[in-house]
Write a structure and sequence with these properties.
Helix content: 25-40%
Number of strands: 11
Strand order of the largest sheet: 4-5-3-6-7-11-10
Pfam families: E1_dh (PF00676)
Largest sheet: 7 strands, mixed
Radius of gyration: 20 Å
GO molecular function: pyruvate dehydrogenase (acetyl-transferring) activity
Number of helices: 10
Keywords: Oxidoreductase, Pyruvate, Thiamine pyrophosphate
CATH topology: Rossmann fold
Organism: Tepidibacillus decaturensis
Order of helices and strands: EEHHEHHEEHEHEEEEHEHHH
Oligomer: single chain
Strand content: 5-15%
Shape: globular
CATH architecture: 3-Layer(aba) Sandwich
Number of domains: 1
Mean pLDDT: 93
Structural class: alpha/beta
Cofactor: thiamine diphosphate
């Protein structure tokens, strides 16, 4: 069964995908809420990023769930995803081991990288997921994965997630030029959350929307308005089909919104006080929930079961990380290449 998104149009989303997207967005939202709580421990009354249960910076993606689920709904384990420094929603949607991921964020030895990478350097080869950590640095990595897929004659796809600020970096243009030249199965998803740290997009970018840059490379560009998870699904479907069939790269820019600061502890002096409450009124999770119920795809009871599953998985991962041990300092250089 599929659900038509509007009258008189053939644009549809399979109901199973809608249910998957809803449960996944609930899981991501709850996960980020739990991480926000954990990160705040030990950092009050004076906020210090070097102290607390989770030291270092923390960049959460609350509100940006549609960008991740819309495209990851079309990906498999053999497809590559490279994420920037705000990676949790991408990792969860791609199927990264949630327990090991959480342990890594807590710096525990049971983590994906034995606690050595942390929040911005997640890496799970089982599902071909990694984080670049540096703005724009993931695009060349994803382009390399796309080149490998083409050279091996596989129909794998590589996706690079970036913020809109990273579209002004050299890595963006250099990678897309080669990807277009060689018709690589690369998709660059630009998450336009309006700010590059604290700089509004209008003050840093000469064009209105970054998918417009696609024409300079003779490739396809697509724009998704209003943080719409369903439109993101449909646009991504075409991009993935194009990439798998040898049609080359696509740039997708989605107007998405982070409800929190650039990093946890960000005073957000650059934002209007009413901005986030207004965004939350148009919450994408609520939109998909209403769609599922209005089309009688699921009942209220089934919605509750989906939400309970998501919460249970996050709680179990959170407890696993809490219970895990910190690595032995004497073993810090194990599995690390040194010269």
């Amino acid at each position: 069964m599929k659900v038509a998104l509007s009258e008189g149009k053939k644009k549809t989303v399979p109901t199973e995908k809608l249910k998957w997207m809803y449960e996944m967005m609930v899981k991501i939202r709850y996960y980020e809420d739990k991480m926000a709580e954990a990160y705040a421990e030990g950092k009050t009354p004076v906020f210090n990023i070097g102290t607390g249960t989770v030291p270092g910076e923390m960049h959460l993606a609350t509100g940006q769930e549609p960008a991740a689920v819309g495209i990851c709904a079309h990906l498999g384990k053999e497809d590559t995803v490279v994420s920037p420094h705000r990676p949790h929603h991408h990792a969860i949607a791609k199927g990264v081991d949630l327990k090991k991921m959480t342990a890594e964020i807590f710096g525990k030895e049971t983590g994906l990288g034995k606690g050595k990478g942390g929040h911005m350097h997640l890496f799970d080869p089982k599902v071909k997921f990694s984080c670049s950590g540096i703005v724009g640095a993931g695009i060349p990595q994803a382009a390399g994965a796309a080149l490998a897929a083409k050279m091996k004659k596989k129909n794998w796809v590589a996706v690079a997630f970036i913020g809109e600020g990273a579209a002004n970096s050299g890595a963006f243009h250099e990678s897309l030029n080669l990807a277009a030249l060689w018709k690589l199965p690369l998709i660059v998803v630009v998450e336009d959350n309006s700010y590059g740290i604290s700089v509004p997009k209008i003050k840093s970018t000469a064009i209105q929307s970054n998918e417009q840059r696609a024409s300079a490379y003779g490739i396809t560009g697509a724009h998704v308005k209003f943080n719409d998870p369903l439109q993101m699904y449909l646009v991504s479907e075409k991009a993935v089909e194009r990439a798998r069939s040898g049609g080359g790269p696509t740039i997708i820019e989605i107007e998405t919104y982070r409800y929190l600061g650039h990093f946890q502890g960000d005073p957000e002096l650059y934002r209007d006080k009413g901005e986030v409450p207004a965004l939350r009124e148009q919450d994408p999770i609520k939109k998909v929930r209403e769609l599922l119920l209005d089309h009688n795809i699921v009942s209220e009871h089934e919605i509750k079961e989906m939400e309970d599953r998501a919460v249970k998985e996050v709680d179990e991962a959170y407890q696993f990380a809490r219970d895990s041990k910190f690595p032995n300092p004497e073993a810090a250089l194990e599995d690390v290449f040194t010269s």
